[in-house]
From TrEMBL:
GO molecular function, one term: metallocarboxypeptidase activity
GO terms for cellular component: extracellular space
SMART domains per the UniProt record, alphabetical: Zn_pept (SM00631)
Official protein name in the record: Zinc carboxypeptidase A 1
Family classification: Belongs to the peptidase M14 family.
Residues in the signal sequence: 1-18
SUPFAM superfamilies (alphabetical): Protease propeptides/inhibitors, Zn-dependent exopeptidases
Organism the protein comes from: Anopheles coluzzii
Residues the record marks as active site: E372 (proton donor/acceptor)
Biological process according to GO: proteolysis
Length: 412
């Protein structure tokens, strides 16, 4: 009993006086998983990390993972690297320097833009300004509040009645900052661009934009820990949060999710245990004209299709892949950025309980994709702000193709 009280006291004290986490001299290594023995080693480290952090999960031989090595584990890492003959290349020598570069105050202008990453309040204020500037086109949406009481805000963009709808989801994983920035940039283009192709999709679809679907986690990445991924609910005495992209009620906990509350992939105590996913799904279910759902993540340069719990094909798999292949081919034209496409379970790893699986499997939405945006791991989650606009530009190029090709198949 005394131990339990001490743990509670530590957790509460930490919550009130937490300092911002720093990653001075943390190194990021790219490791190629070449043998079953190496895979077992890496999976054991993932289960008992003691300071190590994986930026992508070790799931099978023949893949590569990014591992963050803290200073106090350098000796240990050197030993296991030699013992297991690990192929490991240093990607980043000092992670904190990369984080500091990403958040340079000089990048942030007085007006909202895309030369820096902005916090939730600034994003929401900008959404409010769009409602004021485009009152006949932009409608404010507030679907409820997060665990810590922050609103989950979005906007609807509609130029005329009778359109099919497109949903844009960002920042469900808190540390994937470029996902929210891309969503807001696309929104701005739909309102301001004179490009005929952009105008065509802007005015002939209803758009639902939710750039920050995990506001508590996103704020925490700014105030306390840049590498935070989950929500901020109280998942156990010692640990907070669940992975909001493992928490949806479609094949919940059917692989690639953890039942351990401290894990980054903790699925939650039950489907929709997180108020954020529960309210978001409730709202999406009210949209009877939804034809396209686009979720945005980083990193890996992938265009993913359902499902995450199985390699079995969804009902319109061939058409979805054909459309997506044309989309990533178009994406490559502007800057040469190469994407791959595939089913989640095949292209990356088994991961059940994700938003796009629920949208497809429960709502039967015709076209459903998840983008894993730039890059391939050089910067990982800490993508420099200079890459926001190029990332968003090429992404919009591909979205145009998804909608054009979807119309050709009769989905809209």
């Amino acid at each position: 009993m005394k131990l339990l009280l001490v743990c509670i006291a530590i957790a509460l004290f930490g919550a009130t006086v937490a300092e911002k986490a720093r990653y001075d001299n943390y190194r990021v290594y790219r490791i190629r998983v070449q043998t079953d023995r190496q895979l077992e080693l890496l999976q054991a480290i993932e289960q008992y990390p003691d300071g190590y952090t994986f930026w992508n999960e070790p799931t099978k031989v023949g893949t590569e993972v990014l591992l963050v090595v803290p200073p106090h584990k350098r000796g240990h890492f050197s030993d296991i690297r030699a013992q297991y003959a690990l192929w490991a290349v240093l990607q980043t020598a000092n992670l904190q320097e990369q984080i500091d570069q990403e958040s340079r105050p000089s990048l942030r202008k007085e007006t909202f833009g895309w030369t820096a990453y902005y916090r939730t309040d600034a994003i929401y204020a900008w959404l409010d300004s769009l409602v004021a500037s485009y009152p006949n086109v932009v409608t404010p949406l507030n679907i409820g509040n997060s665990f810590e009481g922050r609103p989950i805000k979005g906007v609807k963009v509609s130029y005329k009645a009778g359109n099919k709808a497109v949903f844009m989801e960002g920042l469900i994983h808190a540390r994937e900052w470029v996902s929210g920035a891309t969503v807001t940039w696309v929104l701005n283009e739909l309102l301001t661009s004179s490009d005929p192709k952009v105008r065509q999709i802007a005015e002939n679809y209803d758009w639902y934009f939710f750039p920050v679907t995990n506001p508590d986690g996103y704020e925490y990445t700014h105030t306390t820990d840049r590498q935070w991924r989950k929500t901020r609910s109280q998942s156990s005495v010692l640990c907070r949060g669940a992975d909001p992209n493992r928490n949806w009620a479609y094949n919940f906990m059917q692989g690639g999710a953890s039942s351990v509350p401290c894990s980054d992939t903790f699925a939650g105590a039950s489907p929709f245990s997180e108020i954020e996913t529960r309210q978001l799904s409730d709202f999406i279910a009210t949209l009877d004209n939804l034809s396209t759902y686009l979720a945005f993540h980083s990193f890996s340069q992938l265009l993913l299709v359902p499902y995450g719990h199985t390699t079995a094909r969804l009902d319109n798999y061939d058409e979805t892949i054909a459309i997506g292949t044309k989309a990533i081919n178009k994406l490559r034209e502007r800057y040469g950025t190469t994407y791959n496409i595939g089913n989640i379970a095949e292209a990356i790893y088994v991961a059940s309980g994700g938003s796009i699986d629920w949208v497809k499997g429960v709502l039967r939405t015709p076209l459903v994709y998840a983008y894993e945006l730039r890059d391939l791991g050089r910067f990982g989650f800490v993508l420099p702000p200079e890459q926001i606009i190029p990332t968003a530009e090429e992404t919009l190029d591909s979205i145009i193709v998804i909608l054009e090709e979807g119309a050709n198949y009769g989905y809209h």
